[in-house]
Specification:
The chain has 291 residues and is of the alpha+beta class. The protein folds into two domains: 3-123 and 264-283, Rossmann fold (3-Layer(aba) Sandwich); 126-260, Probable inorganic polyphosphate/atp-NAD kinase, domain 2 (Tumour Suppressor Smad4). 21% of the residues lie in helices and 36% in strands. The chain has six helices and 19 strands. It has helices spanning 12-27, 36-42, 70-80, 103-115, 188-191, 275-283; strands at 3-7, 32-35, 51-52, 63-68, 87-91, 119-123, 126-132, 137-143, 146-150, 158-164, 167-174, 176-180, 203-209, 219-222, 227-232, 238-242, 246-250, 255-260, 265-269. Strands 8-7-18-15-10-11 form a six-stranded antiparallel beta sheet. It has a six-stranded antiparallel beta sheet with strand order 14-13-12-9-16-17, with no helix packed on it. β7 and β8 form a beta hairpin. It starts with a strand and ends in an 8-residue tail after the last helix. The relative contact order is 0.15.
Length: 291
């Protein structure tokens, strides 16, 4: 088993934890490769820890361990998933819906990971295509959680024409619109009033953001559907984002298409916690005030 190590080095806790973890791997002669950023930051011996660009790391390992919060796992999924390499999230963030275990649990599970004693859960992802017809170009994006069209820094709502498999659905008058995966249903969509979906569901969620009508509600559709949106704003420019990270200025001339990605994100499951346990823990369900 060769581990690939990715980390959010902007977190002070990661910078404290990672050297000790790498030293333990080296002491036990456990093979690992790291990103070039990690190798440079900690001045690692390349004979002990070969370094590669993050988008090539998956070609040199059997399992990627991502140290950080949910944002780290989202960015890791975008570069690692095309290589069919499973990802284990180690939570150094706050909420940690996607991160499977804590650093202390990682040490406890290390032997199981080396022996391959873990489960791999396939999670659906999205592929978004942004087309500008007059410019005859296409931009492609990968999203694990969601893609969002937002009004940006403009105070008024925008109009979002929405189609499913080329059939007209609705024109939303809202601050924005998002399309999310079942995994992403616990993220921005949840805050916007969208439903919670279990990760194994084969579905997409269309969630309007602050719609200017009580009848414009979130909609759950099958995962083999293609969603197309075109939008109009008095300011003309709007913002398109992918997992809250990639941002592109959008005009009424652009067309956005969203469909299920060809390859899923492979998450390592080794904590023994079910999705319902995670919901109860993260959302404080099942707690009653003391009498």
């Amino acid at each position: 088993m060769i581990f690939g190590i990715i980390a959010n080095l902007s977190k002070s806790a990661v910078k404290e934890i990672l050297p000790d973890f790498l030293q333990r791997l080296h002491t036990r002669s456990i093979s690992a490769v790291v990103t070039q950023e990690i190798a440079s930051r900690f001045d690692l011996n390349p004979q002990h820890f070969p370094a590669y660009p993050e988008n090539q790391l998956g070609e040199h390992c059997d399992l990627v361990i991502a140290f950080g919060g949910d944002g780290t796992i989202l960015s890791t999924a975008a570069v690692i998933s095309p290589m069919d390499v499973p990802i284990l999230g180690v939570n150094i963030g706050r909420f940690g819906f996607l991160a499977e275990i804590s650093i202390s649990e990682l040490y406890e599970k290390l032997d199981d990971l080396i022996a391959g004693n873990f489960l791999i859960e396939d999670r659906m992802a999205l592929e978004a295509t942004v087309v500008h017809p007059s410019e005859n170009n296409k931009n492609h994006y990968f999203a694990f959680n969601d893609v969002v069209l937002d009004k940006g820094g403009f105070s008024r709502t925008i109009l979002i024409e929405t189609y499913i498999d080329e059939e007209y659905l609705n024109t939303y008058n809202a601050d924005g619109l998002m399309i999310c995966t079942p995994t992403g249903s616990t993220a921005y969509s949840l805050s916007a009033g969208g439903p919670l979906l279990t990760p194994d569901m084969k579905a997409l969620v269309i969630t309007p953001i602050c719609p200017h009508s009580l009848s414009q509600r979130p909609l759950v559709i099958r995962d083999d559907k293609v969603v197309k949106i075109k939008a109009w704003s008095e300011k003309r420019e709007m913002l398109f984002s992918v997992d809250g990270q990639d941002v592109l200025n959008i005009t009424e001339d652009h067309v956005i298409q969203v469909r299920k990605a060809k390859k899923p994100v492979k998450l390592v499951k080794c904590s023994g916690k079910s999705f319902y346990q995670v919901l109860r823990t993260k959302l404080n369900w099942g707690e009653f005030p003391k009498k």
